[in-house]
Design goal:
six-stranded antiparallel beta sheet, 8 strands, two-stranded antiparallel sheet
């Protein structure tokens, strides 16, 4: 039995984004899956992702939350438009709260869902969990861009 494909693998297999690109061998390669009204991902840090022994670097925390949230917004906006084509979305604003050290000793769970949407914009709330406890949260606004924007059809 084969492993299910993530939304990144289904919609953007050639994407080279550092956080979520399946085609970036040196990236984080987040694999997000639909889960209820949002997305869920499991990701396991490696020692080179650490700020210090046992603690995930804050920039990596931000990259995980940003990419996972952006995918959540993109899928929502695609479905809202009744389209089968994923819109190119970018981060408009993004606020991360580091609640406690995110440990690197095992898998982390990322969860995200759209909490507000209007037109081509979606507001997403997300979090990282370790051992069932939230270690970081974020709230961001993601916007579908049109032709002429550098990110248009980057998938």
């Amino acid at each position: 039995m084969s492993e299910p494909r993530s939304v990144q693998e289904r919609y953007a297999p050639e994407n080279r984004c550092f956080g979520c690109g399946p085609a970036n061998p040196k990236g984080l390669r987040i694999r997000s899956f639909e889960d209820g009204d949002g997305l869920r991902a499991e990701w396991t840090p490696e020692p080179h992702h650490e700020a210090w022994e046992g603690a995930l670097n804050g920039g990596i925390v931000g990259a995980l939350l940003d990419c996972h949230s952006n995918w959540t917004a993109a899928l929502h906006l695609m479905r809202q438009a009744g389209s089968e084509t994923l819109p190119a979305t970018v981060t408009s604003e993004f606020h991360v709260k580091l609640l406690r050290v995110t440990p690197t000793g095992g898998p982390l769970t990322l969860r995200a869902r759209v909490v507000e949407s209007k037109g081509s914009r979606a507001t997403v709330e997300a979090q990282i969990e370790a051992g069932g406890q939230a270690t970081a949260t974020c709230r961001g606004v993601f916007v579908a861009v049109t032709e002429g924007h550098p990110a248009y059809h980057r998938w």
